[in-house]
Inverse folding.
């Protein structure tokens, strides 16, 4: 399975449409090189990751209502690893209000709630810078896809006005082998490996992923599961289920998973998403229109750290 490698400067200049489309319709994956240098991201990402070592006060300020009934935030903020409930990863979901406070809603929908702040010096500013860079890259990718499909690239601006995109910090802790049930154990040529995140497609349009040198990401191909290695200084790109549905399957939403468990791993995905009220009309009339926020919620509530949540006004 071919995963094209594209210099991010070529993407941003609009001169890589052919490579973008080749990856989108074949593997459903791309690699963007040169991202850290072009957008000055490395030190800011390191600062964002210090949340996981900032101590219990940072977690207490940001923990979701699911884990602490006194917390107001439902959708944004910190979610805990719960191995006993088969949730093996902890993380922090950051909204675009860090970049633009006007992106936070009025409290009537948890999908637009403001992001709780951990109180780490410089953290808010690092998040704002990182989100801005990811929004620019996500927009450039979407316009390249629209041009490649022969559609109006102006659709990107209309659909993503008021975007509720999510920057997610993920920490995969090291776990003892007995944490993993039979369905999470795999025997590979490298020895036994463990499924940290099960096979799935992402919900939205485009995912931009940084992963540390530990690796572990795999994509499903006609030949079976293949490793998607880290991209030093760059990002792995995969295309989401909604983009696949929107294009009538012309863009491939590829199932992927994460293996690991015996060593700590960090990753930082960014989910480029439309506005909560954006009406998505499938291209070419291949399906009924739908509202993005409704689609997203139905997908998200299937994940372990979202199960049991109700989409209701944020308190």
């Amino acid at each position: 399975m071919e995963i094209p490698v594209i210099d991010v400067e070529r993407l941003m200049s609009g001169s890589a449409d052919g490579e973008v489309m080749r990856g989108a319709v074949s593997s459903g994956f791309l690699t963007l090189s040169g991202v850290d240098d072009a957008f000055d991201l490395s030190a800011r990402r390191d600062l964002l990751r210090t949340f996981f070592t900032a101590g219990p006060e940072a977690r207490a300020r940001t923990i979701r209502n699911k884990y602490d009934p006194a917390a107001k935030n439902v959708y944004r903020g910190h979610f805990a690893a719960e191995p006993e409930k088969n949730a093996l990863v902890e993380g922090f979901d950051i909204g675009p209000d860090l970049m633009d406070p006007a992106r936070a809603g009025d409290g009537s929908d948890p999908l637009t709630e403001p992001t709780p702040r951990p109180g780490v010096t410089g953290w808010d500013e690092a998040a704002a810078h990182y989100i801005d860079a990811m929004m620019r890259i996500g927009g450039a990718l979407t316009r390249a896809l629209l041009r490649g499909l022969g559609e109006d690239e102006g659709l990107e601006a209309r659909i993503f006005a008021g975007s509720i995109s999510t920057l997610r910090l993920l920490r995969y802790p090291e776990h003892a082998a007995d944490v993993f049930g039979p369905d999470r154990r795999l025997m590979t040529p490298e020895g036994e490996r463990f499924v940290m995140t099960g096979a799935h497609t992402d919900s939205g349009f485009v995912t931009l992923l940084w992963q540390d040198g530990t690796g572990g990401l795999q994509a499903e191909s006609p030949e079976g599961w293949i490793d998607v290695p880290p991209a030093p200084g760059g990002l792995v790109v995969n295309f989401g289920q909604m983009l696949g549905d929107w294009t009538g399957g012309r863009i491939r939403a590829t199932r992927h998973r994460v293996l690991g468990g015996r060593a700590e791993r960090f990753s930082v995905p960014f989910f480029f998403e439309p506005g909560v009220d954006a009406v998505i009309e499938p291209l070419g009339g291949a399906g009924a229109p739908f509202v993005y926020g409704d689609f997203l919620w139905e997908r998200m509530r299937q994940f372990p750290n979202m199960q049991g949540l109700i989409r209701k006004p944020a308190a």
